[in-house]
Amino acid sequence: MTGQHCWGYGEEDGPSEWHRYFPIAEGNRQSPINIVSNQAVFNPSLKPLVFVYDQCTSINLSNNGHSVMVEFDDNDDKTVISGGPLEGSYRLKQFHFHWGTQRNSGSEHTVDGKPYPCELHLVHWNARAYSSFGEAAAAPDGLVVIGVFLETGGQHPGLNRLTDALYMVKFKGTKTQFDDFNPRCLLPSSFEYWTYPGSLTTPPLNESVIWVVLKEPIKVSEKQMEKFRKTVLFSGEEEEQRVHMVNNYRPPQPLNGRQVHASFK
Ligand SMILES: NS(=O)(=O)c1cccc(F)c1F
Ligand SMILES: [Zn+2]
Predict the structure, then answer these.
(1) Close Cβ partners of 80 (under 8 Å, ≥ 6 residues apart)
(2) Is 261 annotated in the active site?
(3) Would the CB of 201 count as within 6 Å of ligand 1?
(4) 120-169 pLDDT, tens per residue?
(5) Per-residue pLDDT averaged across 37-44, rounded?
(6) Could you tell me which of 141, 143, 183, 184 has the fewest CB atoms within 10 Å of its CB?
(7) 146 forms bridges with which residues in the sheet?
(8) Closest Cα to atom 4 of ligand 1
(9) 245 C-alpha to center of ligand 1: Å?
(10) CA Rg, the chain, in Å?
(11) Residues 178-225: pLDDT tens digits?
(12) Whose CA is nearest to atom 8 of ligand 1?
């Protein structure tokens, strides 16, 4: 493990080892967490979430060795979220996923101890207060990540364009053009959510994220989940070992007295 370049999800370099190079791993506002639904406090002052995604410009789909990610043009306020617990709007930078080997593990957040097979993260940054994503990622109110649970059920038509393109980003460090993908199709019908102050769930684990986890999962088919599990690798094309990208999730971290708020009763 050398600095921010080399960490993973294996025995030697996985979540239990991250504290060696990223001591904030043992901080007091780490993510993910287990959400205990009957301890979440309904906060009537929380506003509805507003997703302004219609003018979004997706750029590429890539495999960064930790997840598969779709990046967006964030040079202006075309694609933002506002409302909810937020002051002002936050710009969409990228979305990515975390998943397991079968349906009883894979998500990062859990609800009453229950994991989902996959979790989508839509990463936004505070472009009003900071001049770059990097600067925002170092600030306590710099980032907002929307967490969406994926549950297995019927096929999700909107996800097919992505799962059909995964073969293009099989290896770590590969990317492919990916235009005109509007992530609104990956949102559930209800925008009810839990929210709490937390961190990135991967190194550098900055404690700069306002988490907004949607209660309603979206349904994807087992076949679509299998595409994630069987197509993309942690390893690069030049590496000897071919290791499927699975179980790229950090387990829940101590709440350390944080309050989880609910937008709903
Ligand atoms: N898993 S995660 O959503 O916390 C995350 C991961 C990498 C970079 C980020 F900006 C980020 F938000
Ligand atoms: Zn994530």
Answers:
(1) 52, 89, 90, 91, 92, 124
(2) no
(3) yes
(4) 999 999 999 999 999 999 999 999 999 999 999 999 999 999 999 999 99
(5) 98
(6) 184
(7) 122, 212
(8) 200
(9) 17
(10) 17
(11) 999 999 999 999 999 999 999 999 999 999 999 999 999 999 999 999
(12) 200
